[in-house]
Amino acid sequence: MVQQVLLFTLPPLRSMSTHQRMVVASLPLLLSLHSILVVSSILILLATAGFSRDDGGYSECKKPFDCGLLQNLSYPFWGGNRPQYCGHPAFRLLCQEGQYPSIAGDREPEQFRLVGADPNRKVMKVEPIDPEQYICPQNPENKTLNPSFLSFIDSDLHSLNLFYNCTDSSDKPGTVRIGCLGWGGSYFGFERWPTVSGQYPPMCNVTIRIPVPGDAVDGLQKRGMPAVEGLLGEGYNLSYLYGSAPTICQGCTSSGGVCGSNTAKVVESH
Ligand SMILES: *[C@@H]1O[C@H](CO)[C@@H](O)[C@H](O)[C@H]1NC(C)=O
Ligand SMILES: *[C@@H]1O[C@H](CO)[C@@H](O)[C@H](O)[C@H]1NC(C)=O
Ligand SMILES: *[C@@H]1O[C@H](CO)[C@@H](O)[C@H](O)[C@H]1NC(C)=O
Ligand SMILES: *[C@@H]1O[C@H](CO)[C@@H](O)[C@H](O)[C@H]1NC(C)=O
Ligand SMILES: *[C@@H]1O[C@H](CO)[C@@H](O)[C@H](O)[C@H]1NC(C)=O
To answer: Which positions fall inside the Wall-associated receptor kinase galacturonan-binding domain (predicted)?
Structure first.
């Protein structure tokens, strides 16, 4: 339509009135003004048709990103060169070339590595960083691994409790002995996560609590410490498919939108 308006024929210059000459002389200017108008209307049309009113740069979030050894990551993960508004604060990744990213969350110590992610199934595979520090540890320290991303985990979780240097050497029901050189009696056992603590009253100098999937518990109890070491060393899947509050933009992604969040609340953009 725009181009039809511009298709008119001009009479030879000499036969024009002064007024007509002025019009012709200013035609390039009119045309360029016109193209500016056309271009801006197209931009405005694109902006209103293609993106929602609260897009605010979120189209950037549609691009998957790579972080260390992991590729094609998307919401709720962010970090590296992907801005925070494309992810959820609890899922901040620290990317290092040739390594699996660590999950740093929001101002918290890194306790887990992300070793796999399947956005379609909403499954992430994690492993504790340096699991050997929890197995017959050299520098004993009471510790509970409780990163903030656990608030958005849908899987049934149990606490793997590792007890070291226990003064009472008799075996305790529901616990399995750990043979650690240089330590007093040591055991591992399980309770539901989050722990209410005090399930075990054994007098132990060191207790370490690590969240693990509930369906791994039976196998670990039967197969003992080697199985525990295997689980911590290889990692395990956790589901971040959240059907109930707090949802991280479930409805948004299923409708083809992209998700991001600011620090106050999750922002949806369709
Ligand atoms: C990246 O992830 C998207 C969405 O999860 C998927 O559709 C696509 O096939 C993946 N691409 C590659 C190269 O893995
Ligand atoms: C963990 O999730 C990954 C990615 O979806 C999948 O390939 C793998 O089979 C899962 N492992 C277990 C033990 O379920
Ligand atoms: C660990 O916690 C127990 C029980 O609270 C305490 O008695 C012990 O001193 C702590 N051990 C270390 C190494 O801090
Ligand atoms: C920790 O070890 C010290 C030194 O052996 C001992 O006196 C103390 O009772 C132990 N703490 C616990 C909670 O068993
Ligand atoms: C472990 O127990 C021994 C003997 O009671 C004690 O000397 C040592 O200090 C304890 N270790 C820790 C880390 O509490």
So the answer is: 61-104
pLDDT number for residue 251:
45
Q: What single letter denotes the amino acid at residue 91? A: F
Low-confidence winner among 8-12, 91-95, 124-128, 155-159 (lowest mean pLDDT):
8-12
Residue of the CA atom closest to atom 2 of ligand 5: 165
**Amino acid at position 241, single letter:** L
Count the Cβ atoms, other than its own, within 10 Å of residue 188.
22
Q: Given the CA of residue 72, which atom of ligand 1 is nearest to it?
A: 1
What DSSP line would sit under 169-227, residue for residue? -S--TT-EE---TT-SEEEEEEEESS--S-S----EEEEEEEEEEGGGHHHHHHH-HHH
Q: Is the CB of 203 under 6 A from ligand 4?
A: yes
Q: Which residue has the tokens 């048709």?
A: 49
Ligand at minimal distance from the CA of 185 is 5
> What pTM, to 2 d.p., does this model score?
0.75
